[in-house]
Specification:
mainly alpha, 2 domains
């Protein structure tokens, strides 16, 4: 009976060793995948920083241009309307 118990313990030890090796390999694989993903995130972050550098300034500049153009169009339309009224003797 003692011999049977020792054989069971030896088998359990071998199984545990194999399980630990498998877990260790899986951990290494997952760690490698995580490192690769982190590198990609870092690269995307740098790309975003480069591509959207001074985005607030560019947005503000474009907004000012649009507002100036719209203001000019509004005044131009009013001038045309006033000039049209003067030509037709409405004023």
């Amino acid at each position: 009976m003692l011999r049977y118990g020792i054989n069971v313990l030896v088998c359990a030890d071998r199984l545990l060793t194999l399980s630990l090796r498998y877990v260790s390999l899986q951990y290494g694989r997952v760690r490698g995948e995580l490192d690769t993903l982190q590198q990609q995130v870092d690269k995307y972050h740098m790309d975003l920083k480069r591509n959207f550098k001074d985005i607030n300034k560019r947005y503000t500049d474009q907004l000012i241009k649009v507002k100036v153009i719209n203001s000019f169009r509004l005044h131009h339309a009013m001038w045309l309307e006033a000039a049209s009224g003067v030509r037709h003797g409405k004023q």
